[in-house]
């Protein structure tokens, strides 16, 4: 399989203690270009220990290998199993991240604590593809601000660009980053929320872990003045409350609007 070489950005200038203003400027410009042209990029030298990333993936594997009774002890808002025609296509476990201390974790694994907030961590398990069907997650865009994904060494992530689906190479020491609809609106369509999907591989399970950074639900979202009136451009989007937009997105998944522009 040929992999598409999306931009890889060295973010170490933001992590190391020594001053490196030139390195920061270079990384910022690379991110800007990636958001304009792709909506996707990889980050290298991010400072997260591989041992920690591996431990997180192992904890998700432990949960997804547990009994159905244990999985169903988790509230339905946190655990989901695909009910598509190909039952068992994927399962996901969601952890809200805040300081509320509200714990809805299963006992197995015991290492993760869970609470409620705008941002969340999502672990996903995909069963191996069959000859008849291999879709893990169908084509979609993320509604929030930024998504950071770790797909380790088993690929499957694909990005839609130039009228084709392009696979993104997995890497145990890199993270994939994509921007969501909120950033596209704030930038007045200068930065693109990329359409992406997951194709399940043959003969192996696939696990991934994604962090979703969002705005608070009661925040008003509209094109920024720096991207509209201050540069003489008209807004391309109406303003909206983020929570109402998410609700509309969820409704449209089950009841798509008759007009594509809606």
TrEMBL record:
Keywords: Iron, Metal-binding, Oxidoreductase, Vitamin C
InterPro entries: DIOX_N, IPNS-like_FE2OG_OXY, IPNS-like_sf, Iron_ascorbate_oxido_reductase, Oxoglu/Fe-dep_dioxygenase_dom
Origin superkingdom: Eukaryota
Keyword Cell division tagged: no
GO BP, one annotated term: coumarin biosynthetic process
Domain Fe2OG dioxygenase span(s) in chain numbering: 113-215
GO MF term set: 2-oxoglutarate-dependent dioxygenase activity; L-ascorbic acid binding; metal ion binding
Membership in a protein family: Belongs to the iron/ascorbate-dependent oxidoreductase family.
Protein name according to UniProt: Fe2OG dioxygenase domain-containing protein
Species, as recorded: Solanum verrucosum
């Amino acid at each position: 399989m040929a992999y598409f070489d999306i931009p890889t950005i060295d973010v170490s200038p933001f992590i190391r203690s020594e001053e490196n203003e030139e390195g920061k400027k270079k990384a910022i410009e690379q991110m800007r270009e990636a958001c304009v042209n792709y909506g996707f990029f990889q980050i290298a030298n991010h400072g997260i220990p591989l041992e920690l990333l591996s431990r997180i993936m192992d904890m998700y594997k432990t949960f997804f290998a547990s009994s159905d009774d244990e999985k169903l002890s988790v509230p339905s808002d946190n655990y989901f199993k695909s009910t598509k025609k190909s039952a068992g296509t994927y399962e996901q476990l969601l952890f809200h991240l805040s300081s509320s201390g509200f714990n809805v974790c299963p006992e197995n694994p015991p290492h993760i604590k869970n609470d409620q907030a705008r941002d969340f961590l999502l672990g996903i398990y995909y069963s191996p593809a069959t000859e008849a069907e291999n879709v893990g997650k169908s084509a979609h865009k993320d509604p929030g601000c930024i998504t950071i994904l770790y797909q380790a060494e088993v690929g499957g992530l694909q990005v839609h660009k130039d009228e084709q689906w392009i696979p993104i190479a997995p890497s145990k020491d890199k993270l994939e980053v994509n921007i969501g609809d909120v950033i596209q609106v704030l930038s007045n369509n200068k930065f693109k929320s990329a359409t992406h999907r997951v194709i399940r591989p043959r003969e192996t399970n696939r696990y991934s872990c994604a962090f979703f950074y969002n705005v608070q639900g009661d925040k008003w979202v509209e094109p920024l003045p720096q991207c509209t009136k201050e540069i003489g451009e008209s807004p391309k989007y109406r303003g909206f409350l983020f929570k109402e937009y998410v609700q509309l997105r969820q409704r449209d998944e089950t009841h798509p609007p008759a007009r594509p522009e809606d």
